[in-house]
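Researcher: Please translate sequence to structure tokens.
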Amino acid sequence: EPKCYLGTLLGCEVINPLLAQAAQQLTYWRVHRRAVRDQTGHGFSFIFYSSEASAADIYQQLQSNKLLVLLQQQELLKVSYDPLTTDLHRVIADTSDPVWPAEVRASWPLFMMGASQMWLAQIEMIKQETPEEQGVALRYKRIQEQVTELWQQQGQHALMHHLSALYAYQPVAIRF
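Model: Translation complete:
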């Protein structure tokens, strides 16, 4: 089974503190998650667009993060970084799915940054209401359960309905 609580843990304990220090250095950022059937069972990406100097600083902060080091030592997490030599002058839309139309690719980073901020804020609020358990893994499993419940109970109206309203209540095909 995917260990989705790891992404919740990373979001709250690694990305939130990083953003508190580095948000001004980032033009855009977002979290991307994917369930995969491998040893870790979960893919988590922190994608950001910044200057090379800011990226180097952020990489250094991540590489010295004690929680990331511990999770890697426990083989619960693999960390990789894009090379700093990546062309930083490319258009931000290039970080979106290349099969999408230009209008969607160009606006996707804005949408996902806002959605990622919402997700992180929800985790932080739920964390404040969740007592510390016997270990960090159990606490974040409980937090992930509450985030899932929130999504299942409120996602349809709070997110899907209001997105539908923005697009004039037109039908949309949903595939999984």
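Researcher: Any highlights?
Model: DSSP finds five helices and two strands in the chain.
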